[in-house]
Amino acid sequence: MAKLPPYATTGQRIWHYTFLVICGLIFFFLIAPIAVVIPLSFNAENFFTFTPEMLRLDPEGYSLKHYRDFFSNPDWQNALWNSIKIAPVATILSVSLGTLAAIGLSQPHVPARRAIMAILISPMIVPLIISAAGMYFFYSKINLAGTYWGVVLAHAALGIPFVIITVTATLVGFDRSLTRAAANMGADPVTTFFRVQMPLILPGVISGALFAFITSFDEVVVVIFVGSAKQQTLPWQMFTGLREQISPTILAVATILVAVSIVLLTIVELLRRRSERLRGMSPG
Amino acid sequence: MADAASNDGFVVFDRVQKSYDGETLVVKDLNLSVAKGEFLTMLGPSGSGKTTCLMMLAGFETATHGDIRLGGKPINNIPPHKRGIGMVFQNYALFPHMTIAENLSFPLEVRKIGKSDREAKVKRALDMVEMGDFGGRRPAQLSGGQQQRVALARALVFEPELVLMDEPLGALDKQLREKMQFEITHLAHQLGITTVYVTHDQTEALTMSDNVAVFDDGRIQQLAPPDQLYERPENSFVAQFIGENNTLEGVVTEITGDTCIVKLDDGEIIDATPINVSKVGDRTTVSIRPERVEYNKERLQEGVHTLKAEVLEFIYMGDIFRTRLRVAGNDDFIIKTRNAPDVERLTPGQQIEIGWLPTDCRALDA
């Protein structure tokens, strides 16, 4: 916490503490809904509320039964498996296409690059339900609706904007004379890309990949439109679960997803710092 | 000289033009021939087209018209990575994610040279620039001067026959720059490589080069060895751009063989050598180097015209004296005198008479 300078007036002191309270409230507003889910998922009863036993911190009030349910119920297992099959493939597609697009659009000689950029980013701006409906009609025409690849492509389209934005941000600081130097030393464009450009924009690529992965892993609207029962993912299963049975297993799944997200974010941040250190951008 | 591009040079620009927008020419009808082993400097103010020429030679820009030949072969249609030209970039362009040794090894790896060979060449190149102990460091851990040496070693490590340098010393402090000027010329001559060097620093151009091409407005204004360029500039741009220069404006009143008489705008008469004035009545800018002006009457040649001058300022610079005079209405007439025991130190307000050898005073275009 920042120390107040000795010359601060009473008004400044009052504002300083008010400001801290406001920040705390905002933080609480953001975190509370997620934090509440975690203890509830250890509920021993099949309810979405804190039982008196739980409030008394009685061990009897807590159990792992919802987690057992998640790992034993074939519906949930199937959904988990579908998510695991879809998200990484969609991520790989998003990262490859998004990175190439970002590099292409960073070349000053590309005509109409602002317009192209706007189109590529539009899936992020257009309301999801509209994208989803559009994709459904389009994919139906070309027999992609209800297929595994349909869902993968749809999720890739949603992930590409994130990759483009993060990679473009890293490219802003990229020194073009490095690729020229590589070419001058005899490296063809492909070698130059993999040996010089890629390692240097890797932090942006990794962040973009994380966003693309989370987008696919958490996505429910598009998959309901474009997918069929065979592509039922975790979020879809949770959504159906909420509507039909209100089982606290959903809370267990939510907790697992939160944990996975935190782990992923941490790993990515560590990777990013490591690669920034490697390219000598920041000290030690 | 500029238009005498022969076809047997190692690097040849043959009537090269370059335009970025299809309207204005950045490079206008460039003819230039660089011999094998020559150290050529392209010198000029920013926007004069010199860097564009270097980029065309490296392959990062394409010529709009004309041919560029390397070793007799046209290279217009050869991509940069197949030209085999070494280059030192203005900001060094060292790969920040690789160590110094990896940086040097890179051009050898893409040439598929074996590991032991590679290591030997990298070591030799690093030793050559006295950076042998730094192979394991990263560029960010080196000082500007050290990065500069590494960049030089990297451009030389794959033994190119031609090396391009784009203002490589611009970011260094004065002392280091002078040291590197010497080292680069020394290395280039020792290895016998052809060098094309771009700079806007005239001292660098004069001290390093075999030949200097002075660029302005997309054309080579003069191509000559440093001493000729300094002592015999062919037009007023070159005279102004290279070294310190005094100018006086006037009209040619008489031309006899290789001397002429110029009547200055305030009516005084001086002797000069006609360079690009052709007839009596031409307006001319007369150029005299500050160190060629003489005010000791005993040393002045018999019969030459002298000018009255008033001393405005005397600056003691150690090895030389720098004196500012008012001559024929010009308040910025500078003379430089060597600090020697027999030289008179002028005082402001003093009235003196100055003169020079007609050969040192060149009547150029107005």
UniProtKB/TrEMBL annotation, chain A:
Assigned keywords, A-Z: Cell inner membrane, Cell membrane, Membrane, Transmembrane, Transmembrane helix, Transport
Broad class of the protein's primary localization: membrane
Membrane spanning stretches: 20-42, 86-105, 117-139, 151-174, 200-226, 246-271
Residue ranges annotated for the ABC transmembrane type-1 domain, each copy included: 80-268
CDD domains named among the record's database cross-references: TM_PBP2 (cd06261)
Topological type in the membrane: Multi-pass membrane protein
Signal peptide feature range: none
Gene3D superfamilies reported in the protein's UniProt record: MetI-like
InterPro entries per record: MetI-like, MetI-like_sf, TNF_CS
Annotated compartments: Cell inner membrane; Cell membrane
Family under the similarity heading: Belongs to the binding-protein-dependent transport system permease family.
Record protein name field: Polyamine ABC transporter permease
Organism in which the protein naturally occurs: Aliiroseovarius zhejiangensis
From TrEMBL, chain B:
Function: Part of the ABC transporter complex PotABCD involved in spermidine/putrescine import. Responsible for energy coupling to the transport system.
Short name of one Pfam family: ABC_tran
Keywords (A to Z) from UniProt: ATP-binding, Cell membrane, Membrane, Nucleotide-binding, Translocase, Transport
Superkingdom of this protein's organism: Bacteria
Source organism per UniProt: Aliiroseovarius zhejiangensis
Signal peptide: none
Reaction catalysis annotation: ATP + H2O + polyamine-[polyamine-binding protein]Side 1 = ADP + phosphate + polyamineSide 2 + [polyamine-binding protein]Side 1
EC number: 7.6.2.11
Entries under InterPro entries matching the protein: AAA+_ATPase (IPR003593), ABC_SmlMolc_Importer (IPR050093), ABC_transporter-like_ATP-bd (IPR003439), ABC_transporter-like_CS (IPR017871), Mo/tungstate-bd_C_term_dom (IPR008995), P-loop_NTPase (IPR027417), PotA-like (IPR005893), Transp-assoc_OB_typ2 (IPR013611)
Domain ABC transporter span(s) in chain numbering: 11-242
Subunit structure: The complex is composed of two ATP-binding proteins (PotA), two transmembrane proteins (PotB and PotC) and a solute-binding protein (PotD).
Top class in the EC scheme: translocase
Protein name: Spermidine/putrescine import ATP-binding protein PotA
Listed SMART domains: AAA
Keyword Zinc-finger on entry: no
Family: Belongs to the ABC transporter superfamily. Spermidine/putrescine importer (TC 3.A.1.11.1) family.
